[in-house]
Amino acid sequence: MSVVDELSSILAGASRAVFFGGAGVSTESGIPDFRSATGLYTTHAGGAYPPEYMLSHSCWRDRPEDFYEFYRATMLHPEARPNAAHTALARLEAAGRLAAVVTQNIDGLHQMAGSRTVHEVHGSVLRNHCTGCGRSYPVEAIADSTGVPRCDDCGGIIKPEVVLYEEGLDMDVMAAAVEAIGRADVLIVGGTSLNVYPAAGLLDYFRGEPLVLVNKSATPADRRADLVVHDSIGAVLGAATDEALGEA
Fold it and tell me: What is the pLDDT of residues 54-66, one digit of tens each?
């Protein structure tokens, strides 16, 4: 039996599966990851400051013009569209097989594909707010601005609702993710190296089986998994979903 057949059989029997994904899900939509040879940390190394600092709370606070210039250039991808993995997950949710998506990504592509229950543990570039009066702003308020984006009402700085380095995660979002994973009958982990904590620690809340890992390279959790696939998340999940839903 092929790995696609194995995964399709797992999906066909699921009623409250959860998908936990990382940057590798969005690379197939043209959004660079962080740690690979072509990732952000490699391609933007050698600047005046490392990328980790440029995306930190300290940089946002102390060097806001530099922060927003770097943020617009690296974090905003308005041309990106959902790929086969995103659409497969939306179809599985609509079919009653998938209960939730837990994602480390901030691009909003899961919702664009049609997923409704999405826990974004690192926030979203699509949500922004004024740090002065709290007014909400769409992504265009930052994407289409220059310098430091300011609120039309009070002149406060418009800040993206993403988790920067040195900032804590949203505990309400984490609690919802923990609850979803704890209740899951299947956990599918895809497109993540599982090296970023505390998000990677979410696997420890899964009490069911099977655990499925789909990633192009090995992860620290491979030995714990019931099914490991080192391949494209879009190709594998798309084909397995087709089979599971009888659309192959």
Answer: 999 999 999 999 9
Q: What percent of the chain has pLDDT over 70?
A: 94
* Architecture of the 3-30+80-122+168-244 domain: 3-Layer(aba) Sandwich (3.40)
Residue 46 has pLDDT above 80, yes or no: no
Known catalytic membership, residue 122: yes
Residue 63 marked ligand-binding: no
152 assigned ligand-binding residue: no
Task: State yes or no: 61 annotated in a binding site.
Answer: no
Enter the CATH code of domain 124-162: 3.30.1600.10
Supply the pTM of this predicted model.
0.93
Structural domain spans, the chain: 3-30+80-122+168-244, 32-76, 124-162
Name the residue with tokens 């084909």. 239
d(CA 172, CA 162): 14
Q: Average pLDDT over the chain, rounded to whole?
A: 93
Catalytic residue, candidates 86, 110, 119, 122: 122
Round to whole Å and give the CA distance between 21 and 193: 10
Whether residue 34 is annotated as binding a ligand: the answer is yes
Q: For 73-94, how does the pLDDT look when each residue is reduced to its tens digit (9 = 90+)?
A: 999 999 999 999 999 999 999 9
Coil, helix or strand at residue 74? helix
